[in-house]
Design a protein that fits this description.
This protein has 413 residues and is mainly alpha-helical. It has helices spanning 2-32, 36-50, 55-70, 79-94, 100-120, 124-137, 143-154, 158-171, 196-205, 220-233, 237-250, 255-267, 271-284, 289-301, 305-318, 323-333, 337-346, 351-381, 386-399, 402-410, and strands at residues 177-184, 190-193, 208-216. The longest helix has 31 residues, at 2-32. It comes from Mesonia oceanica.
Length: 413
């Protein structure tokens, strides 16, 4: 009696196994005919039974499932379907399927290409979802997590972005490294490889040529800066400053982190602290014209045109072609004009008032003459700068230089 029960059980087990094999084959046939919905339905019906089967059956099942959810055109599939496809190919790869890695690569490429299209269409949340899915399919590729965080920042989903940035921080991600490229000899297109070994293998095959490498700069300071800015956006200024301080504790000489800290102070309205930090950075990087220019802007905002002029002059010493520095030099020089006009308009007709009026008029004329060289240089560098051209017309009109007025009017658009 016991023997009969065992025999019946064995028959049933082998029958179930046979059914699973047949249904996986049926799903594969449906995939070949591009009946992906039918294939999904068949595979779902045997999913609960596959877990206890031999690796070979599992391997076939997960490859079929991956193909069904990837579809003919992966880039048109939903992120949820591509996630299932990618996870299925991962399982098949772990079980030893030699084709699974390439298929997993196709899924991730589809996610990235679709994310790029979303990003270009300013669908930042959708792009972030696809990039994060790609990261989860290969957690060694933390670059996709970084881009997911950046897209969420663009979408102003600051809480989710902060979560991703903190993950990058905890992982010690820097983004620093080297990217490897070669030209596809068939298409003529430049393509990126996962690493040097992969690229060198393709070069040996003869299908690629002209290898090149591109250095990637560290993104660590940007990550800490973004964490800090999000905290600032949330009204958590102390946490923002602390995020930068933590980074500087590890890298005290990192000028990018110092500038990130300065930027936090600037956005928090603490412009004196901003200036203090940037001046320290300039001690390390004295040939940075942009920093001098930014300090000039800050000094102007703080109501110190004299200091602004000093910074703008330093900027053009370093970069004589910085058009905006010349314009701001002229603007800072002319800042005194309104005060002069106000005083002139308040004067009466007495002898003393008339004398003071004439003094102010001379000072105003000198102010114009001091500003002219900066504006003329700006127009020399940028002949289409309408703001500078109009100011030159106004000044020369005040000075009675009709020939110059005519010259600059001819340059107006």
């Amino acid at each position: 009696m016991k023997t009969k029960i065992i025999a019946v059980g064995l028959v049933l087990a082998s029958t179930t196994l046979f059914a699973q094999k047949r249904e996986i084959k049926d799903a594969e046939k449906a995939i070949d005919k591009e009946n992906f919905s039918e294939a999904k339905s068949i595979l779902t019906s045997v999913e609960s039974q596959v877990a206890g089967e031999k690796d070979r059956i599992k391997e076939d099942y997960y490859m079929a499932k991956g193909m069904a959810y990837m579809g003919k055109q992966p880039q048109t599939q939903s992120p949820s379907d591509l996630k299932i496809a990618g996870e299925s190919f991962q399982m098949a790869q772990e079980l030893g399927n030699e084709d699974a890695a390439a298929k997993l690569g196709d899924v991730r490429n589809a996610l990235i290409n679709s994310a790029i299209a979303d990003q270009n269409a300013k669908k930042y949340k959708e792009a972030a979802q696809k990039l994060y899915t790609s990261y989860n399919l290969n957690k060694k590729d933390t670059l996709h997590l970084y881009f997911a965080a950046a897209n969420l920042t663009q979408a102003q989903d600051y809480e989710a972005a902060l979560n991703y940035y903190n993950k990058l921080k905890d992982l010690g991600y820097t983004g620093k490294g080297i990217e490897y490229y070669a030209i596809n000899t068939e298409t003529g297109e430049k393509e990126k490889f996962n690493d040097k070994n992969q690229r060198d293998l393709y070069l040996k095959s003869g299908s690629y040529s002209d290898p090149t490498e591109e250095k990637l700069e560290s993104k660590k300071s940007e990550i800490y800066k973004n964490i800090a800015l999000i905290y600032l956006q949330q009204g958590k200024e102390e946490k923002g400053i602390q995020a930068i301080e933590d980074a500087l504790a590890e890298n005290p000489g990192d000028t990018q982190l110092m500038l990130a800290k300065a930027d936090i102070y600037y956005k928090a309205g603490q412009k004196d602290k901003y200036t203090e930090i940037v001046e320290k950075v300039l001690e390390k990087d004295p040939n940075n014209a942009s920093l001098y220019y930014n300090l000039g802007v800050t000094a102007t905002q703080m109501g110190d045109p004299k200091k602004a002029i000093e910074y703008y002059k330093k900027a053009i010493e370093v970069d004589p072609k910085m058009t905006n520095a010349y314009i701001n030099l002229a603007s800072s020089t002319l800042m005194k004009e309104q005060g002069m006009i106000d005083e002139m308009n308040s004067l009466g007709m007495s002898k003393a008032d008339t004398k003071r009026y004439e003094e102010l008029q001379k000072e105003r004329t000198q102010l114009y003459k001091d500003a002219l060289p900066y504006l003329e240089k700006a127009v020399e560098l940028d002949a289409n700068n309408q703001q500078a051209i109009q100011t030159l017309i106004n000044i020369h009109s005040q000075l009675g230089n009709d020939d110059k007025v005519a010259k600059y009017k001819a340059m107006k658009n």
